[in-house]
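Limitations
The structure tokens in this dataset are predictions for the assembled complex, not deposited experimental models. Users should treat interface geometry with appropriate caution, especially where small molecules or nucleic acid strands are included. An illustrative entry is reproduced here so readers can see what is and is not provided.
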Amino acid sequence: MTAAEAGERLGQILREDFQVPPGAIRPDAHLRVDLGLDSLSLTDLAFLVQRDLGFSAEAEEFRGITTVGALAAFCADRVSAASAAAGG
Amino acid sequence: MAEGSVRARRLGRLSAEERAARLCDPGTFAREAGALAARGAETPPGDGLVAGVGLVNGRPVSVIATDGRILRGALGEAGAMTATRLVSDARDAGRPVVLLLDSDGARQSEGVPAVNANARLLATLADVGGYVPRLAAVFGAAGGSAAYALALSDLAVALADRSFAFVAGPAVVERALGESCSLDALGGTRLHGTTGLLHASVSDDTEALAWLRSALGFLPGAAWSAPPPGDPAEDAATPIGAADELIPFDGRRAWDHRRAVEGIVDGGSWLELGAPWGSSIRTGLARLAGRALLLVVSSPSDRAGALDAAASRKLTRFVRFAAAFGLPILTLADTPGFLPGQRSERESVLCHGAAVIAAYAEAKRHVPRVSVVLRRAIGAGSVLAAEADIVLALPDATVAQMGAEALEAASRAAGIEHQSMVVPSPEAAGFAHRTIAAHALRAELIRAFERLPAARAIAAGTRRTPLIPS
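Predicted assembly:
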């Protein structure tokens, strides 16, 4: 999965599950400051991206990921790793 | 539509009304007065609280549910007063209290009146301890006073990696203390599974409600009631055969406590409480020929079964809980005693160990106790086996002042000739009443509990012992 593909899926989750306006979803948008997601919402987001994109990660791994673009890149990376592990 | 309802559905997150209704037998939950209590135009009907009475397996329970989707579940004055009245009524009626929590605590926008009302709710929850069981599930977050309501509960379950409990959240902690941390590190289920705040972890709302129903199935409605009976014909999940080696003879070899559990209690009846907390000892609710009891079993795969401060706290808590609610106690012991060493002393193992001794002594006044020395009962750790109404021992069990290596070291340090003080036969030494082979253990335990008097009967509206959190 590419970062762009992950970004698209992430954008869908943000729009549909968190009611984030489409115009606010940019790669450099800060999840807390720009999109207004609090700690619990971020926990929900982490759970949903893992479930929808098909990978798993520890809660601490999401700490330090602050923007939409960074989250998309992280998801793409973990999905690719999961696919490689499954195929290998 | 409540904020985030699409997300809630996708996460399997139920509303407060749905949780209360699904906890109870279908169609039995009735929302009590208070549904229209509200303060101001901004608060919803019921003040974001769902409170009422329903049946669980045909027996009445009082249910209080906060809805995290409405004002973050924060409890205002009206909601706290409604909850307080329900808890108080539950004690008078002899009904368990079940808290379904997703709450920031007291509603800040209402100021002191909300703080005051929430404080009264906590005091009332504390006051009913030992009269009626208090169970809780946390969905989402439990902050501030909601976290203390959780801590006041006798049994608590949470959603793995999705539930949190803390005095104050990460933002407040960072502002007040300059300490940056994640929700998970501050108050996640992995942390609180080891602190003793949470006793079980499940994957979603539905499993949490099922866990609560299961736990309630072991418990009486009140201290003066009897626990509900199970099926006396149920057999052990994995009976122990005559040729089976339940416990390895070599005291240095670990063994899996689950083998003892599955070989002794009724199949499918084991509900473990606090697995990762003080995990050298395992505790939980179980049935033996249908009789509900507290099962305590050593876990030598962790610290060789030694009792550290955490294990001691866990034991104290659940032994006192069993005593309060008339549950017999079955202890399966294989322990080298309390854990020595600097770290253990800093964690106050002596004080917590003394509490274990006191808890078992108190329990003996209220409920029947049967213990089995599976392999070792060393030093003060023999408290797990001693002072029971009936003490059994497996053929290769030993009871000693200290382990062989420790005894040798102590003798050398004292400049005296090492002499073995291991007593090979607990029965011969008068420690155990009978020696019993592993494959005959279940049958002997069933007979033992049948012979013993049931829990000390008490008058309606009274309690055997208060339950103070520790």
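Some entries come with short summary sentences. For this one: Chain A is about 60% helix and 0% strand.
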